[in-house]
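Problem 12. The chain below contains 434 residues. Write out its predicted structure in token notation.
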Amino acid sequence: MPETADRSLGALFLRLRMDLGPLRDSRDFRLLFGSGAITMFGTFLTLVALPLQMKGLTGSYMAVGLVSVAEFVPMVVCGLWGGAIADALDRRRIILYTEAGLCVTVLILMVNAMLPSPQVWVLYVVGALSAGFGSLQRPSLESLIPRVVRHDQLGAVAALNSFRWNLGAIVAPGLSGLIAVAFGFAAAYALNVATFLISLVLLWPVKAPRRAEDASPASIGALVEGVRYAVGRPDLMGTYLVDIAAMVFAFSTALYPFLAGELGTPQAVGLFFSASAVGSLIASVTSGWTGHVHRQGLGVIVAAIVWGAAVAVAALMPTAWGVFACLAVAGAADMVSGVFRSTIWNQTIPDELRGRLAGIELLSYSSGPMLGNARAGLMAQFGGARFSLGVGGLLCVGAVAAMAASLPAFRGYDARTDEHALRERARREAATEV
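Solution.
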């Protein structure tokens, strides 16, 4: 019996263990993964230092909030255009040029911080430029990764990227704040410049597959073609619509300071902000089971319902640790949803459209949290933080269930039988043989 139990536990461990195959098998993915890990830490340095510097220069809540407003329009415009150029031009070059552009923007912030009187307008302009370069780069990066790993490893890639992000989201902000406060803003920006230079060294040897000679040139027409393709695929639309609904109704980080105050533990606000990343990190480490799931559409639906339900239950918790536990469960569910959504995208979208669809994806998962916090604040104004949190979670569950009922193609998606997944798998296998 003990031997049988040991074998069962061993099999369970192997099933849950994160799949490191893409890192072992693909040199280019290792380079991209390493570059992303380094630049993520550097980016958090700037994400923390810039609002802190703005607060120190102006002392204004409005001035700090307007930094996000300045970043929004470049994010939207460059995200869509970045998708178009990703399908028309050399993705590796786009990644290198935008990485260099991001490095220059932080260099400008460093020089500004070293001035006797740093200029506020520089923070707004550079914040907008940085958001633009980042949004131009993201579609090329997202569409390059599926080309450097095997088709059957795309789910593992999504889990690894989620692990990298969530580990960084837990560790990097705290370290970034300490560096900015202890050594000054110029030092924080200088360290970010160094991370971008290291990243460029890692990105330079990446070998990008050659672009098709008949690739669509970047244009408004090409963008429309991408949108038309997405709208014509109910399974793809399901991934976007469910994620937006989940974020709009249940994303509520704006409520955390008020919730912590109501619980009499204002110091717990940091705990609440980190809860989602903690849950997501745990889910990433134990994500091996996701590779055995073939009905990813149903997986997204279940994960989004768990996300909303966990947020709703958090509103009922009488202690800060109870709220933390519920938010961690929500974060784990969000991570699982993200893995399944990314797998559907990368398994089924043709390479010639991957960049444009990545631009649409960027807008879908960037706009949802912004709208969610606006919804949370408006509902809290009428019924309080717990009311907004609880009702928002229930609305999320209802909206996702309604979408699942109205989108049978999304609900029934199966990677083993879906025509788009089979076509892309066959295309990849043919390209490998050549």
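Discussion. The first helix runs from residue 2 to 16. Students who got a different answer should revisit the alignment rule from Section 12.3.
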